[in-house]
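subagent[fold] <- orchestrator: predict structure for attached chain, return tokens only, no commentary.
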Amino acid sequence: MGLGARKHGLTLVAGSVQRPRRQQSLCRCCSGRMGPRLLSNQVARITSKMPVCRAVGMETSRKETSQRPLLSEEDCRKLTPLHAGNIYENPALPMIKTANDLAVGLKTNLEDGIVSSSEDERRNKYGANSVAKPEPPSFFKLILDALNEFTVLTLIGAGGVSLVLELWLAAKEGRDANVIESVSILAAVVVVVLVSAGNNWQKERQFRALEEVQSKSVVRAIRDGVEISLPVERVVVGDLLMLETGDILCADGVLVRGFNIRVDESHLTGESDEVSKEQCSSQALYSGSKLLSGVGFMLVTSVGSNSQSGMIADMISGENNGSQMALNLLDEETVLQKRLAAYASTIGIFGVAAAVTTTLIMSGKFTLDTFILGESTWHIDYLEQYLEFFITGVTILVVAIPEGLPLAVTISLAYSVMRMLDDNNLVRHLSAAETMGTATVICTDKTGTLTQNIMAITKVWLSGKEFMLTDIEQGEAGLATHASENHLSEFNTDIRHLLTEAIALNSTAKILKDSDGNITKSGNRTELALLGILPFLGSPMVFSMDYKKAQKDEYEAFVVGQQPFTSDRKRMASVVLMKYKDGSSKFRLYVKGAAEVILAKCTQALHYNGTMMPLDEEAKEGILESMHGDGRRLLCVAYKDLDVDVPDDEVAMCKFTESPRTLFQPEEVDDFEHSLTAIFIAGISDPLRPEVRSAIESCKKGGISVRMFTGDNQVTAASIATDCGILTDDDLGPNAVLPSEEFIKRIKNSQDEVDRESFLENWRDIRVLARCSPSDKYTIVESLKRFTDEIVAVTGDGTNDAPALRIANVGFAMNDGTQIAKEAADIILVDNNFASTVSAALWGRNVYSNISKFLQFQLTVNLVALITAAGGAIASAESPLTTVQMLWVNLIMDSLASLALATGYPDTSLLEQKPYKKDHNFVDINGPLPKHILGQAAFQLMVMAWLLGPGPDVLGIDRHIVGSGASVHHTLVFNSFVMMQLFNQLNSRQIEDSRSILENIQNETLFQYVLGCELIFQFIIIQYGGQVFSTVPLSPAEWSISLGFGAMSLLLREVIRRISPKD
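subagent[fold] -> orchestrator:
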């Protein structure tokens, strides 16, 4: 028989019920829609309404509400000004004296929420729950940003002056103007600027798409009397939202009921103190506030731009004039970007020196030959020659400055964070993607991260009897679909009723079944596992939909005080008022939590025959030892009848048709938690994720140490750690598994400060910390960062985990975690899976790998281009590479190569290497990069020297004559130079000497596409570039020469990779 209650087609899944005769009539809200009838003799309708503020009085029906005028938008803003006290005493709104008045004014219902069909009407009247975001920079704005570069502006100026000067001289001398070179320079600059702007525009789109994913959060709301998951942007004024610890409020509103509500409003007030909220005195809640503790319900009064946070956001948006994105990951400069920008600056210094020296030498040599030795007189025509020298110098500067280095980092990070999302890593901070490449320690949670978070009760201790629930099956909602009813039915009715009440009334989770039999659930999975066995206890109790009230033939029960579960307390407690039909009443405390924590507060246990049996330490240890095993998590349920004095009028005001009042504050509930009576211990199993063991093995191979920080006890934690490979035979020392409290005690000195030597000594052996509190986690992570060189990644899901997530080098929040935890984290694990942290480490290492590839290519082409252009210009008074040609080379070096090399897909072999150091030196003399850069550069310079020297004579082609324009000779030099770069681009795919350059190339379609486009464009430039690129078509034989020189770089790599850097 199933206990439950039905409302609007929903049934509370609990157990068997028999309707109390005095409650046969239907509630006013339901009559007319369902008809005044009992749904069955097993499942009855609950007549009560959900709890509301004590000031509510009698509930208002939909009909009454519809006859009142809606509050205006301005009225709603007046409800929740900053530092509001009791909103029902607001002189600006004399018509609002109770929560019921407020519900009437908003045409909503304090139990059922709004009618879904009114959503659009409310949005039109009160606005949408979104703040106008500043417009992203337009493509034109990005073009202006790209133009705002010194070298680009200099080239534009020089090209423009050259064009004007040539037009003026041609007009003066009566000849046709030769503007091809000037126009070509300006056109090349346009192409470079457009490509740069296009890259930035694409990155903007990628990051905006990522931000859209980040902003897609949902809240729990009541509409039409049914709990639903509602996207934040759909929340409207009048919505009834459910609140729980860890939420970040999405709108302004009024607390209409709740327990122990404490919020952080520092984002608005600047005050860091917690603020308590009560439905009878301080009800105003503000968007952006963090719910630090408690559970409750909020009636939304202002959304979007009308909320306190929204008004501030609008002011900020106005100041920015829409020119910047409110949140843009591109604005964040990472450590790697800064380091490569420093590389670029250092190289740029040499580039400036080379450009200035080349310009001065060319100008000086021309002056010497023309005016001193040639004794020519000055003519305005000579100005154009000096301008060409200046343009050559600026072009050398453009080629020499490797501005592609920071660009490559940004592109690699942009590519990585988008692909990481496919691997269930939602990156919130750009730097986290690269930092994971250096991670050396991962401190992970257990539940839901290493395990599947599918809670099932597999073993039970009930009133002195212990048995396995071997035939429980888990349905999709995590409910038991059948159980060992023979075992459960052995217990007398009073014990089963007591356990039913102890579980249901001391819970924040809910399980609902609609009229079609569809099951929905909400709340903590551990609580859901407990609720799942209630149908098999067969108690004839009727519960309200929020599990805060219950009815039985003999009495009514109300939750009148509650202390929610926290990671520090490891337990939850509720005080229940029991009002009997004979007019008497009593109070009872129900407590549940970690078995050893609850048992430590118990002095006796309820025997299955109804008597009490004493519990000494030996008995407690025996129970725990017997229940442990197979990684089970133990949860204990206990109770205590209280002897407290409460005024009769307070008790009388608690009625089943109204809200149960809060008669005891959380601190008072704490004081009752002693001398308890144990009823029930559940052994809850949570299967290990199948992929976790291999993921941890990958971490160990890759030099990443995995430590488990869990709230479970030592036995459970050690069992899971052994199963997943964190704890091996080599780790089974006395200090491998410790209670967190013991570890903290060992590492702190007499001044309660962490001692460096003690920490290092104890950290070395630890693998598992049991009963680890969030504050302990923070202390350990902070000490790791302070006393070691470890790069620490931490996983967490709770509000109290936020400090540790924030201080870690990389904080991973569970997608099922609280909003506060997600806000503090760098990366959100969309699938709550430990294997995804390993994927993040792989992508982080791939960023470093891709940058190394690009650096190897960029520095080689930089060195060769600089020496070739500068050396050739000095030697022959004309650079063998023209300005337009060098701009094309610069385009290959920066934008195209960064796309090709910085977006490589990660190779899993990266996880077999040690993590990159946080101060990784890319050009370490002992690494592979320097030898490949210097070896390839030396080869290319020898080829260029040969082509500019004896090459023409050997090849049988005419040597280039200075000032004669395009020639086969210089076209061959240019083509050979580019071919060597393109083949070296292929070389740069692999930075490890042990790998083939073609390995996994089939997976890198973008690389193939870019390289193919570069080859096609180069062919077009050579064969059809003509005067624009100063080229002449080459014959197949001459193309073979260029391709041959390029291919030789592939053979050279095979030689270089066999040379040890130490040789």
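orchestrator: received. Logging for downstream: The mean pLDDT is 79. Residues 155 and 394 are 7 Å apart (CA to CA).
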